[in-house]
Hints:
The protein contains 5 helices and 6 strands, in the order H-E-E-E-H-H-E-H-H-E-E. By secondary structure, it is α+β, with helices and mostly antiparallel strands.
Amino acid sequence: MTAKTASKKTDETSAPANAPTPPAASAPQPTPVRVFRTKTADLSFPEERTAKVVLPTELFLEADPSTVAKRKGHQIDPSRPASHVAVMPCAKMQAETGNPYPAAGDHPSVITADSWRPYVSVAHHVYALLKERGEVSMRDIQDETVKRSGFEKKPSYAESVVRDALRDLACCGYAEAFSLGAKKLYRVRETSK
C-alpha cells in the first residue's frame, strides 16, 4: 500500500464532516415538588383572619394533613410554620383584580401588626413578577419585589416574605413548585382557581 492509498483509506473510514455531533449531556430538568391535593372544605382554619379571604376550592399542601399531629402555625397548611405574609392569597381578589394579594397592607383582609403591613405589598409584587415571567425563583425576584414595593433598602424579612409568598401561591394553586437541585422554581399554574 502506498502512502497515497493509505491516506485515502484513512479518509474513507473517518466520520463525514456533516455527521451529527453526539448530544451533550442534558442539563438537569426541574422536577415537580410533591404536594397533597385536598378540598378546602375538608380542612379547618383556626385563625379568624383566614375567614377574611376567599380560598380556592382546592389546596395543594406540602404534607399530607392526616399525618400532621399538631398544627405548625400556618393559616391554611397545617404542616408549615407561620407565613411571613400577613394575608393568604384570595380567590375573590384574583378574580376581581388579577392578583390574589392586596396591593397594600391597609386592605380590610389584612389583620396583623402595623409593622407587618408593608410586607403585603411585597407579596403583591411577587405574584405580579411570577405572572410577568412565568417562572421565577426566590433569588431571581427578591430585589425587584422590594424595589417595586417602595422600600428604600431591603427590609430584614424581605427574603422570608418572598419565599413564603411563593409557597402560599403554590398552596392555593396559583403557582406550581419545582426542584432543580437545591433551588426551588415556581411557575404559573395554568389552571388557577
